[in-house]
Amino acid sequence: MGRRTILLIGFSMILTFCLAFSGVGDAKAPDKIKIGLMFGLTGPASPIGPVQLKGAQMAIKEINDAGGVKLGGKMVPVEAVVKDDETKPDVALRRFRELKYEDKVHALVGSTFAAISAALNREMVKSPMAYISACVAPMSMFKKEELAPTTFGIHGTAYSIGYSGAAYIATQLKYKKVYFFAPAYAFGWDQKAGAADAFKKYGITWEYADAPVGTADYTTYLQKIAEAKPDVVMMAHWGIDAINVLKQANELGLGKKTTIWFNWMTNVFGGGVPAEALEGVYSLMSWYWNMEGFKDEEVVKVGKAFVDKYMKAYGEPPDPYAGMAYVGTKELIRGIELAQSVEPKDIANAIMSKPTFDSMKGPGTWRKDHQPLFKYGAFVVKGKGPSERKDKWDLVRVIGAYTGTDYLPTLESEGY
Fold first, then answer.
1. What pLDDT, in 10s, does the model give residues 282-294?
2. Contact 266, 285 (CB under 8 A)
3. Lowest mean pLDDT among 220-234, 235-249, 328-342, 401-415
4. Which residues pair with 262 in a beta bridge?
5. Hey, is 384 helix, strand or coil?
6. d(Cα 50, Cα 38) in Å, to the nearest integer?
7. Structure pTM?
8. Local confidence band at 14 (pLDDT 50, 70, 90 cut-offs)
9. Quick one: which H or E segment has residue 173?
10. Domains plus CATH for the chain?
11. Distance from first CA to last CA of the chain, Å, rounded?
12. What residues does 36 pair with on adjacent strands?
């Protein structure tokens, strides 16, 4: 065989290989990208689950209206597959298996309840799927030995809520005596852990009580708090419990005896109680739909653009949990496009290779533990009374923000 013939054969083989390789993306690209959306649409988390679903669905609609996801050399539409986890971990695991093995979804955005995030994360270790938890997840989930490589938590952990709230109370409100009232499960206990670290740092005296999830009557607890005469009571409740404890605190006149700080407010909770029950109540919010007057004009601008789109779609302002489900869904799909793959580990690696993303909270950056560090970790708000409100959604005014990095657990404490 002559030299020229060998060269021609070699060139032909290289060309064939290159053509085959260039078609790999096309061959592997699905006809549509299926995203599971699973939230607590019924059960104790049901005040929040439906608004999370709206945010996630809006993100998918925006992507499809823009032509879909560029994957494997073509534009691929995104299809949402919706499930209700009923705010029950065992139901959530069954629904996840349905999504994975029957519906054949490529990735998941979900969770309204902390315990469900933890249960799904454990499942991702055994049956990997790219998963973004859209609620505040348990601290333990983000430990190096616990976190699935494909799990991300767009709302971080409840430790941050407790820490930043307690630190603000100590440094800005200057209160010295605090009563911390929590629900008796991970969401409340993790807030307690964060608050305890801040209380220790700033020399705050505090008392603690918790109540079972689903407590119907908080009278005994609230009377005990009033008798303790704290400067401020921090309430760490969630879902239906949040609405009930705020209503009953108002009915018992607790706000006349002490300052109420509700740790993690949403439109749903604030809108679910009489205006009088929210008047003068301090809170943290992940984000609020009306950021007018906030010092960062870019955050105001980005937030308004999102609000306008959401209002057009649904006829009401977005809850902060709708906003974070929207951002989480966008992040998941950004990962798919960056990876040019629907394989779980490819998506996770792609997100971490370019960890900074935009949001209505300012730029966010994923840490090693798959929690995002935002420019503004949370916003401090104060409830409006009946005479101050322009409409039923005019719930609070933004009076500040919590920034910095100390509100997140240290990477060292998580084993990194």
1. 999 999 999 999 9
2. yes
3. 401-415
4. 235, 283
5. coil
6. 10
7. 0.89
8. very low
9. none
10. 31-155+299-374 (3.40.50.2300), 159-285+377-414 (3.40.50.2300)
11. 59
12. 81, 108
